[in-house]
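pls read this stuff:
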Amino acid sequence: MNRALAIDLGASSGRVTLAAFNDGRISLDEAHRFANDPVRVNGTFYWDILRILHEAKTGIAKAAANGGFDSIGIDTWGVDFALIDGHGRMVDMPVHYRDGRTDGWASLFDRISKEELYEITGIQNMQINTIYQLDYLLRHRPEDLESAKALLMTPDLLNYFLTGEMHSEYTIASTSQMLDAKARAWSKPLLERLGLDSEIFKDVVMPGTCCGTLRSGIQEETRAEAASVYCVASHDTAAAVMAIPEPEQDDYMYISSGTWSLIGTELAEPLMSEKARECNFTNEGGAGGRIRFLKNVMGSFLLQESRKQWALEGKVYSFAELDAMCEAASPIGSYIDVDDPLFIKDGDMPARIVAYCEKTGQRAPQTEGELVRVIYESLALKYRNATEEAADCTGKKFRAMHIIGGGAQSEALCRMTASATGLPVYAGPVEATTIGNAAVQWIASGAIGSVKEARQVVKECFPQREYLPDGDFAGAYEKFLNVLSKGRTM
């Protein structure tokens, strides 16, 4: 039996799972789950990275007491980082990508055009990207960069805490918008042009690289053995895509559905055409040397923030209850651009959605069920938009849509996505990120031979639910596109 410890950190929660692979079967045993709550201090929105480390070590201790494990892998959200000084200490706590410090992100284009940036990196322009966070530091806190000896993306930072070794894993580095997409290494000419010291960026390593052994102090603290720590597909979406149960073909779309919806397809090489740039598609790294050609679309964050606001008002709903309320509500024919800047930050999301509908001349939702339905229908139509753009860019004719991650549990969203896109939807596995994290560890150890073999095992071990198009969205797409057009002129 091969036992891998998968530490999966999402933007709202974390989980530590013992994943076992034995006789061709995968089993998952959750050792520890915890909330990942950012903290606002003096106007800055931080990740509580020390609490995250504490919770990760708690999970390691629980897993060690439950039979132990052979290796560890960590995946997290993208773009965020910490700077490490010459004493090996953090210069500052990692700042959350939703912090307002990147509101002036467009100033970077005074030094390099969007076209040039895309030609190098192939990455979608989003104000949350690492490059714009660093540009803020260059303009407002240069002393932080002057004291830095290393920059570590979030999973690389946690690997450093566990092992004392510093690496830059490929899939997470690719989210920064500073990697040369073709060379698959940091673009030193780009870094130097922006005024960044290229020496603080560690050499890029591929998924499956052993980044060290669990420190003796942590072994003692958690009563764990000296396990290998691997750089897995460290971006959580890369880990999730690793677990898509499609071993043979790649003529499908996927949605890694969580706080964000990452919608795209897989390619052998980056696609950085003018059409791809205009459609704002990104070329992020994947396991096995593949490219995740995708768009970042807002996901369950809209629902999470709405749920949080309703709880403040004394109305506490589970996600299952919200799903049922959505199904019970009649369609009101109103839509939002889920990627409008109005929705990027935390806060009173229901009020913002009502305001958006009113400003675009639409009926505003009156009940919680109607509001959830507006969110789901708008997401489904945005998925159609992204699917059509992906087909135009790649020349592929897609035959299916795979939804993996937490959103696979929502029957309402899966059904609406099938109807909106006209593609059969295959939902699951829900724990795709954890499975993909563990699978990279098993490939690295030799227990599984390849990505293709891993996906075949996933297909056999985790059945999916199928949703077929039913035509409910006839005529809705044209209205949705008109709403997008109106929203952009507001």
About this structure: The two ends are 58 Å apart (CA to CA).
